[in-house]
Every structure is written in C-alpha cells, then in structure tokens.
Design brief:
The chain is built from 6 helices and 17 strands. The protein is an alpha/beta fold. A hairpin with an 8-residue loop joins strand 11 and strand 12. The protein starts with a strand and ends in a 21-residue tail after the last helix. The structure holds ligand LTTKRYJ7 and fe (ii) ion. The site of fe (ii) ion has 6 residues, from strand 9, strand 13 and strand 16.
Amino acid sequence: MIRHKKLGYVVLNVTNLDKSVDFYENIVGLEVVERKNTIAFLRCSNDHHNLILEQAAEAGLKRVAYELEKNDQFQGVFNYLTEQGLNPIESSAEETQSLNQGRTLRFKDPHMGVTYEYYVDMKQMDSPFTPKKAKITRFLHVVYETNKFDEMLDFFTNTLNFRVSDTSSDEKGAWAWLRAFPSPYHHDMAITKGSENKLNHLAYQAERVDDIGIQVNKLKNANVPILFGPGRHRPSSSVFLYFADPDGITLEYSQGMEEFPEEGAREPRELEPTPETIDEWGGTPEPGFGKYGKLISED
Ligand SMILES: CC(C)c1ccc(C(=O)O)c(O)c1O
Ligand SMILES: [Fe+2]
C-alpha cells in the first residue's frame, strides 16, 4: 500500500524563465532557492523545492511529484508499481543529486500520460520558509481536466491508494476530489470531466482569508488576470481565488480546506452538481479559467 507524505512539487515548462521566476517569486509568493541558465527551483516550505520552472518552447505541466512517507518504503513501492505494469524508472544518482533529493522513481499514468514521481529524503533548507511577497503556506493541489474520468478515478484510488473525499456529477459534467492517503487535506488532486486531457490548475494555501483579499488587490495592481473568485468552494469549504500565470496557466489561492483523520474519516459525499457547489458566493469562471495546461510528455 503506497503511503504518501505529501504532494511535493511540480515541474512546469515556461516560455520565458525570467518572467516566470519573477512572477512566482514576487506575485505568487514562493522563494527562489536556485537559479541556473534554463531551470529554477522555488520553495514554499522547508523543502529544497516545491516548484521547478524549466525554459522551453512550449508551456505546460511536465511532472507531478509526491513524497513517500518513509524512506524504507521506496523499494516496495518500486516493486509494486512494476507488478502493476507501470514500468517505473529509477532516476540516476547524478539526477537525484542535482535535484537535492534521495531515491526517486518515475512512471506515467496509462490514461492521460502524465509523468508522476515518488521520491524520498528531499534536502531540508537551513532557514525556514518565511512567506514574504504573499502569505502562502504550502503547495496544496493539482487539478486535471480529463476525457478519461472514470479510468483516472479508478487508477488513483485502486492503484495509487488515493482516497475520494467528494464527487459531483450529472449528464453535463463530473468532478472528483481525492487525497493522497494518508495526507489529511481534502484534496491533493482533483479531476474534472472534459473534452481534453490537460492541467486545469495548481493551488497554493493562503495563510488567512485576509491574505486572499490582499492578493485580489495586488493582482489587480499588477494587471494579472483574475479568472474566478474570490468565492467559497462547497466541497473543501475553502475560500478561493484563481488567476493566470505568465503562460496563462491557472493558479489558485485556497484557504480553510477541510482536513481528514487517517482513521475514522467521514465517507465521501456525492454533492449536488449545482453552480453553488463550485461557488457558494455565486461567481462564475472567466473563459481563461483552466484553459492553458498542456501535458508535456517526458521521454
Ligand atoms: C472548480 C474546481 C474544480 C474546484 C472545485 C472545488 C474545490 C474545493 O473544494 O477546494 C477546488 O479546489 C477546485 O479547484
Ligand atoms: Fe482547486
């Protein structure tokens, strides 16, 4: 059984590394840890990185990485994924050194082709992460749009040991919010049924609701497109705000998400597929919401 410590980081391809580093540092609120010619490492925790930005011709999501709960689980997870036919590949010592993390494996899901990583033992920074430009406190979730909704739900629950927190569906659409067991957060990933397979958004936790309000004004002053919100999501009961990064990728600030105990967690709910489930405050997303998020195949 895979036991997750947390959603650790993602790798995004960006078309203008300088611009994106500036944006993620000065607008979103992460801290730059290491900056090289075509790659930058940023953090919003004590980890060496929670976001890697790579210069590329085309923007998109390259990889999603989860930290395993314990180092000694690594070989068992590798063997399990091999038995499941997922052909995990262990990263070379040279690569893990450059990433400042311990043993690392990668595999793709058989439905959307996203590259996932399981790693252990990421370098912890000497100085604690102190939010400066925006009060963010953690990297929270990844949401995909998928035309393989049922298959992805089955894969994440039955193969990767995610647990469903809530679902909602009708003939027009479907959503599922899942946590990377035993992570307590209402969702570390979610899927929404759509015509394409792509990243819908990435979410960062804001410290207080006030910090979301402050960011509304900061984003407006910096001419950053606000794509949805502020509002309140019924599933996790969080207050949210979505906006666009320089390549149009949708980002979310989220505050107040429900947390689950490992044992005795409530059962998943099937929520009404009404607009109020998505925003109790009655807002609607802008056309740019979740629009850009190409899945980049890592070969
Ligand atoms: C609109 C999206 C899919 C959504 C819906 C609900 C929540 C939540 O309950 O926190 C989200 O985080 C979302 O991104
Ligand atoms: Fe979200």
